[in-house]
Specification:
By secondary structure, the chain is an alpha+beta fold. The strands form ten sheets. Strands 2, 28, 29, 30, 31, 32 and 33 form a seven-stranded mixed sheet that branches. The chain has a four-stranded antiparallel sheet with strand order 3-36-35-34, with no helix packed on it. Strands 4-5-6-9 form a four-stranded antiparallel sheet, with no helix packed on it. This is General transcription factor 3C polypeptide 2.
């Protein structure tokens, strides 16, 4: 807002004197002396041939004695003028001294008009205001520039919804008086405030076209300013006119909040058509004989220990709660709610990695989610050492998800057993890896669901070519039992490393977002970032081992941080740029063409995860608040350095934010923290300086809040004090249950006065965090669906092992409703078939790696 204040003061300080008639030189000199003598604190010497100044002359003081303070009067200068510094003569006093010494006086250009102006010229060059100095056209240009800047950057004017206590507008007479009073209070002749600025060419041309108007801009009505707003210089990249940002959208949010959502949906669809591919990696097709079906006894070491979930209940806003308590068996789910369509299922342990499987726009295909959970609820892993052991990758089918909700029950499609330790991150290839499940392939090939890269705690990165569940189930009879799979590709962490373990654990992964997606980046414990070319033919990078296996070395690796790389993200708009966040509390932006130093390095706090949305030049960052200043804990947007914007505070959080995810379609980020609250925030247009955004608290809303409550022998109890102070899961689950309080996300009307919003604001101010017990309600992973068909769906999971899916239906925009039929028609024309019909989720035995 500093820039806005500067422009305001500047526009009010540009004045010229009133129009005068042409006088003779003697009369002009006499008038000049009379005017300059008014308001000076020093005695004016007598000048021969000149009359004394009006106002009775100025008072004289003895040398060295200061003049006594004077009260404002007509003879002492204008009321409210800024006090002059002691010992410093003003321009008016210097000019009077020159005249008193009979020195030639230069023409006083700033103080009088050089030529006579008739009525038309005065109306063109000056804007006279009653009782004040008139303004030149530059003042009108400045105010016009300020009006356009405020229109673009702020949404301060939020009119009430119709029929909801709208107030009648003030009379124009009262508005003029208030503007005049405000201008008089801020008016000043201080030269330090007369800083120049250069308006855009469009603004200048627009001002020249409006030169003939006699009305002052400061007194123009809203109807007169409306045509100027339509010609804003900042338009969307699609070339459309600037959307209307006043009033309320149908979902209840202000139009100023929903305008960037509409813009980002169009940009995302356009760029995906350019940067996404239909088919990549044609040689990496799942083969039947490279998948081994395990028996129940063979699969037992890989299964999570807990067979039943903790007790939990769900309270939905606007629906009367029946107080029912649920306990799910391992790999089971609840039936979706008939109205809200939220899905809940139990995976068996704390969730620490999760990712949606990408599908083409308009495919209407079943949605799949791959996730990993620890084997035990009390399992911990040190980041310093390597960990090996059994792990299980679970692939869940959520059915066909659309804005109106899900009609299918979630189910485990199949799981992949591995021996590389726990999983810290997993990423699917963004495009070109999915094919329709009905694709006919000759035996032993199976139709491919996607390509998945997985980061393990033993330091290895493994690529999996996942088949469609139906194809795998139909080929179970032909599998060769007891044979180890060879369908994976292990990646070595650095160029110098002889084995994957030399770089330490791998914590983060990122695929190159634009086709052909041949590059994969990973961050390791020793601060190294490695980048592989997955289709390289180089014998130095693609090395065959004596046992017949294949290892792939990176073509590029560099030391990015002094400690572990916690998160890494590729820029979706330009594949030359990368961002990394490390345990050294630094966030670094890299240009992969010049890796000798980062583009920008910021040391602020301990970052846990970053999300880089498609249309913007920066990242949203989740943080651990152990290093953050008080009042700054939470979620920030940080510019990469090209635009020079300061960090924008998206949402405050009281505890550690473990995960953050962004939706390119909805221009929204969601984050889960240690307190069990899943909060989402609609971002402003971050291509413009976000510091001028008003009321950012109205842009965020809770999706749900998980609370841990005591449960006695007779049923649920109230009070945080009754919870056991233990960090053991077995003791905690016996005396407590989880309460999920869901928000009605179908509409945001009157949202500021609704109970979830009031609760969220109270938690942000007065929430207390109990670290002396197990945080069973904590959320560890949050993921927005990247697919257009399920764009509004949000998945979250945490310490309790309960994964939930919610549909943010209220953020659906008109642009999305137009894009979906077009994309479905395009999909049908490309694949020569109707959009995929949903199939029921099927469970199959666990295939080994």
């Amino acid at each position: 807002m500093a820039n806005l204040g500067f422009l305001k003061h500047f526009s009010l300080d540009i004045h010229v004197c009133k129009q005068r008639t042409v006088l003779s030189p003697e009369q002009e000199q006499q008038r000049l002396i009379n005017e300059l003598s008014i308001g000076t604190s020093r005695a004016v010497p007598a000048v021969p041939g000149l009359c004394p100044a009006r106002g009775g002359g100025a008072r004289t003081c003895a040398r060295g004695s200061p003049a006594p303070p004077r009260s404002p009067s007509p003879g002492n200068g204008p009321v409210g003028a800024a006090p002059r510094k002691r010992g410093r003569k003003s321009k008016a006093e210097l000019l009077v001294l020159k005249l008193s010494r009979d020195l030639p006086c230069p023409a006083p250009e700033p103080l009088c008009v050089q030529k006579a102006l008739d009525g038309s010229e005065a109306a063109e060059g000056l804007e006279a205001a009653p009782g004040r100095r008139p303004k030149r056209r530059a003042a009108r240009v400045a105010l016009l520039y300020l009006q356009e800047l405020a229109e673009e950057l702020t949404s301060a004017y939020q009119p009430p919804a119709p029929n909801e206590g709208a107030q009648e507008p003030e009379p124009e007479r009262v508005q003029k008086k208030r503007r005049r009073k405000k201008e008089e209070e801020t008016d000043s002749d201080d030269p330090a405030q007369d800083t120049d600025f250069v308006p855009s060419k469009e603004v200048l041309l627009q001002a020249e076209e409006e030169e003939g108007s006699d009305a002052a801009l400061s007194e123009a009505s809203e109807s007169e300013l409306e045509p100027l707003r339509r010609h804003s210089t900042r338009t969307s990249s699609a070339g459309r006119s600037k959307p209307q940002c006043r009033g309320l959208a149908p979902n209840g949010f202000p139009n100023s909040v929903m305008a960037p959502v509409e813009k980002c949906s169009s940009i995302t669809c356009s760029l995906r058509e350019q940067k996404y591919s239909r088919w990549e990696f044609p040689d990496w097709i799942p083969l039947v004989h490279k998948w081994t079906c395990l028996s129940e006894s063979e699969a037992a070491p890989y299964l999570p220990v807990e067979e039943k979930s903790p007790l939990f209940t769900i309270q939905r806003e606007g629906i009367e709660d029946n107080g029912a308590l649920y306990r799910l068996n391992r790999f089971n789910s609840l039936q979706p709610h008939e109205e809200r369509r939220d899905v809940s299922f139990f995976v068996g342990g704390p969730v620490w990695a999760m990712e949606w499987c990408p599908t083409p726009e308009g495919s209407a295909a079943p949605q799949y989610v791959c996730l990993y959970c620890h084997k035990s609820m009390d399992e911990t892993h040190s980041v310093a050492g390597l960990h090996r052991g059994p792990a299980l990758l679970q692939l869940w089918s959520l059915g066909t998800l659309q804005q109106e909700g899900s009609a299918d029950k979630a189910g485990l499609a199949y799981a992949v057993a591995t021996d590389h330790g726990c999983v810290w991150d997993m990423k699917f290839c963004p495009s070109g890896a999915w094919e329709p499940p009905s694709t006919s392939r000759k035996h032993p090939q199976m139709s491919r669901l996607g390509l998945l890269a997985v980061a393990f705690s033993d330091g290895s990165v493994v690529l999996y070519s996942l088949p469609h569940p139906n194809a795998l189930q139909s080929c179970q009879r032909t599998q060769v039992k007891g044979r180890k799979s060879c369908g994976t590709l292990p990646l070595v962490g650095s160029i110098q490393a002889g084995s994957p373990s030399e770089s330490g654990q791998c914590f983060s992964l990122s695929w190159m977002p634009s086709k052909p997606h041949h590059h994969l980046a990973a961050g390791f414990y020793d601060g190294t970032v490695a980048i592989w070319n997955l289709l390289t033919k180089s014998l130095l990078q693609r090395v065959c081992q004596p046992d017949g296996s294949l290892k792939l070395y990176p073509f590029q690796s560099f030391l990015a941080h002094d400690h572990a790389v916690r998160s890494i993200e590729w820029c979706k708009a330009n594949s030359n740029f990368l961002v990394t966040a490390g345990n050294d509390r630094k966030i670094k932006f890299w240009d992969l063409r010049r890796l000798y130093e980062p583009i920008n390095s910021i040391k602020r706090f301990l970052s846990t995860e970053v999300a880089w949305l498609l249309p913007y030049n920066g990242v949203t960052v989740a943080q651990d608040n152990c290093y953050a200043s008080y009042g700054l804990c939470g979620i920030h947007y940080i510019d990469a350095g090209y635009l020079g914007f300061k960090a924008y505070f998206v949402a405050p959080r009281k505890g550690t934010v473990w995960s953050i995810s962004g939706s390119d379609w909805l221009n929204t980020v969601a984050a889960g923290d240690i307190t069990g609250e899943l909060v989402a925030a609609v971002l402003p247009d971050l291509a413009i300086n976000p510091l001028n955004v008003k009321r950012s608290s109205d842009r965020r809303f809770p999706v749900y809040k998980a609370d841990l409550l005591p449960c006695g022998p007779t049923g649920p109890e109230n009070g945080e004090q009754a919870l056991p102070k233990t960090r053991l899961y077995s003791e905690m689950v016996a005396k407590a249950y989880i309460q999920f309080r869901d928000t009605d996300l179908r509409s945001f009307k009157n949202f500021s006065s609704r109970e979830p919003m009031r609760r969220m604001h109270t938690q942000e101010v007065k929430a207390e965090l109990s670290l002396d017990r197990l945080q069973l309600e904590s959320l560890h992973k949050v993921r927005f669906s990247p697919n257009l068909d399920s764009q509004g769906w949000l998945l979250s999971g945490g310490q309790a092992g309960i994964v939930r899916a919610h549909c943010v239906a209220g953020l659906a925009s008109g642009t999305d409703q137009q894009l979906l039929p077009q994309c479905r028609a395009r999909f049908s024309s490309l694949y020569g078939a109707e959009p995929c019909s949903p199939g029921p989720p099927t469970a199959s035995p666990l295939p080994a790696e």
